[in-house]
Amino acid sequence: MPPIKEIRGRGLPLPGDDIDTDRIVPARFLKTVTFDGLGDALFYDERYDEEGRPKDHPLNDPRYRGAEILIVNAGFGTGSSREHAPQAIRRAGFRAIVGESFAEIFFGNATQIGLVCVRAAPEDVAHLMATVMERPETELVLDLAAGELRYAGRTAPVFLPEPVREAFLEGRYDPLEVLLNAMDRVRELDRRRAAPGKPGLY
Amino acid sequence: MGKTLYQKVWEAHAVRELPDGRTQLFIDLHLIHEVTSPQAFAMLKERGLKVAFPHRTFATVDHIVPTHDRREPFEDPLAQAMLEALRKNVAEHGLAFFDLDSGRQGIVHVIGPELGLTQPGFTIACGDSHTSTHGAFGALAFGIGTTQVRDVLATQTVAMNRLKVRRIEVNGRLAPGVTAKDVILHIIRTLGVKGGIGYAYEYAGEVIDRMSMEERMTIANMSVEGGARVGYMNPDATTFAYLEGRRYAPQGADWDRAVAAWRALASDPDASYDDRVEIRGEAIAPTVTWGVHPGQSAPVDGRVPDPAAFPEEERPQIEDALRYMKLRPGQRLSEVKVDVAFLGSCTNGRLSDLRLVARHLKGRRVKKGVRALAVPGSQAVARAAEEEGIAEVFRQAGFEWRAPGCSMCLAMNPDRLVGDELAVSSSNRNYKGRQGSPTGRTVLASPLTVAASAVAGRIADPREVFDLGGAHAAD
Ligand code: SF4
């Protein structure tokens, strides 16, 4: 996996607390055997009316086209464990999310696929949103090595758990390779422990 | 110092500490369904990997199956494709699959316990957040994302952060008409939908101790709506009695050994917790939601809240919820007209839920104009309900009696709300658009309240409709 040290791009503001995964990707779009094309389902019911006509939504706003950093408030990604949510965000072209807080399962799912979620103080998020709404062309620099977000001559500290930050910097955010390194010990656990229909330790 | 069940189970499954500070955790039981597994199998293939321990993964199909006409091919080609993909993947990797013709198909969180796959002390993972349900058995059970489904298939492990543990004691007694569903809705309202973030919930106390396994599952199921990824009860005689003789449960001499081991897993009396909460059973009323998340609820005989009564920063969210729900501040909940009644899901689609409702529904009729669906959680539940005459009670009362699946809980199959219909639903989520229509409205409630509302044609207090006695506050 390529290391992720810095993400540069424009921002897209998505105000509101507790935006849940049903809103991020409505359930009917889960009817697929691949993640391809999921980017189009992102916030579908908020972007289009029942006849499929675009509504007033930042994702439909041409000024934000090509934005790579999503800006959100608190409790983003609450609800289901569906990885379709971060996958849709990633496939719609976003590489990072800056917000006040994230739901736990969402955060983990996003991290594993290299979608960087960082927290910032509520007043910093508010300032960032206001700036981007006023001047969508503002370039944001999310510097993971320094732990800060720079834009429009301003620097705001951003937070993520230290081990996660290191995993991004070192390209270890997808843990499969690491998990595969301990298979001897795992095989031993499998032999000793009970399984459905098979006795063993509990 | 003693240990909690969480600690003991965690320690027994820790493979090692990872460089990123997380723990590599061994998974005893992996459950999969058609929605969150196909991409995981594709990722596995991409890397040229196989399922490491096929005897620990079990599959079912639940989310997309039609509940009215199950002849294949399904009307919806996407649904059919998902089922075919699952069939292909389980065949290729030699996994057990409870397909539609197996007689054992059902919602993943209903069949796991039913078949005895779910056992105390297990770590259980599934690409589905309501995996917390299995915690009712004293298992450490949690939802995972699709990439982690891949990890479990490939290594039988996941990378996890250890959670804190909050003990929630529900003591005293429940009043007549108050059920496990009301208890968990009350807990979520009390602690908040984010209150459980970073925690595993340990449910205990006199009320929980007296509950059946199915009632405990209803509570553990909705831990995740309270923000807790994991919820569990300590295993006890009720747990063992439920499991004994089930298909995948230990048998004979193994059974006795297993019970002894399970007993030892329960939290020690002197275990220390990161937090403790006590709730009085008497304080819990039949509860319904009025908003767009499971914490926005009130007693069924109460009123829609007035945003003005809340601190200023909370008002916009409440106003938004009321706008979406088309409810007026201060309006009596019992004045709210109901279009759909949905009885089912992994929260309340078990035999005991249907039995309880049938007992009270007998001889009554669903109000004209209300579309009422009863969807058993599994084929085993459906069979038992037919044999006991329960299914017939539902049909006589005007419910549509359907085939097992998730159905209108999230409407990935043809069962869905239309326009801004309002459903009183025994499921677990009332997010905007959850039941298939972007403007559809969901009121979460217990099965008894769903049935009472179906009969009354409006949100209704089961204590009134079914003459359950017990005082309730007149306001
Ligand atoms: S019944 Fe609902 S909550 Fe349960 S697994 Fe199915 S869709 Fe998910």
Features of the shown structure:
heterodimer; A: 202 residues; alpha/beta; Aconitase, domain 4; 2 domains; 7-stranded mixed β-sheet; 8 helices; 17% strand; B: 475 residues; Aconitase, domain 3; 5-stranded parallel β-sheet; 19 strands; globular; binds iron/sulfur cluster
Provide an overview of this structure.
The complex is a heterodimer of chains A (202) and B (475). With 202 residues, chain A is α/β, with parallel strands linked by helices. Chain A has 2 domains: 6-171, Aconitase, domain 4, CATH 3.20.19.10; 173-202, no CATH class. Chain A has helices at residues 21-24, 44-47, 84-91, 104-112, 122-134, 162-170, 176-180, 183-192; strands spanning 6-14, 69-72, 96-99, 116-119, 139-143, 148-151, 154-157. A 7-stranded mixed beta sheet of chain A has the order 4-3-2-1-5-6-7. In chain A, a hairpin with a 4-residue loop joins strand 5 and strand 6. The longest helix of chain A is centred in the middle third of the chain and has 13 residues, at 122-134. The radius of gyration of chain A is 19 Å and the shape is globular. In chain B, helix 13 crosses helix 15. Chain B is α/β, with parallel strands linked by helices. Helices cover 33% and strands 17% of the residues of chain B. Chain B folds into 2 domains: 5-275, Aconitase, domain 3, CATH 3.30.499.10; 287-465, Aconitase, domain 3. In chain B, strand 1 (14-17) and strand 2 form a beta hairpin. In chain B, the strands form 5 sheets. Chain B has a 5-stranded parallel beta sheet, with helices on one face. At the A-B interface, helix 3, helix 4, helix 6, helix 7 and helix 8 of A face helix 2, helix 3, helix 5, strand 8 and helix 10 of B.
Write the layout of secondary structure elements.
The complex is a heterodimer of chains A (202) and B (475).
Chain A: E1 6-14, H1 21-24, H2 44-47, E2 69-72, H3 84-91, E3 96-99, H4 104-112, E4 116-119, H5 122-134, E5 139-143, E6 148-151, E7 154-157, H6 162-170, H7 176-180, H8 183-192
Parallel strand pairs in A: 1-2, 2-3, 3-4
Antiparallel strand pairs in A: 1-5, 5-6, 6-7
Chain B: H1 5-13, E1 14-17, E2 23-26, E3 29-32, H2 38-46, E4 57-60, H3 77-93, E5 96-98, H4 108-114, E6 123-126, E7 140-143, H5 146-155, E8 157-160, E9 164-171, H6 180-191, E10 199-204, H7 206-210, H8 213-221, E11 230-233, H9 237-243, H10 252-265, E12 275-280, E13 287-289, E14 297-299, H11 315-325, E15 340-343, H12 345-348, H13 351-361, E16 371-374, H14 379-387, H15 390-397, E17 400-401, E18 422-425, E19 441-444, H16 447-456, H17 462-465
Parallel strand pairs in B: 3-4, 3-6, 4-5, 6-7, 9-10, 9-12, 10-11, 15-16, 15-18, 16-17, 18-19
Antiparallel strand pairs in B: 1-2, 2-8, 13-14
The structure holds iron/sulfur cluster.
Iron/sulfur cluster is lined by residues 62-63, 107, 109, 128, 130, 345-346, 406, 409-410, 427-428 of chain B.
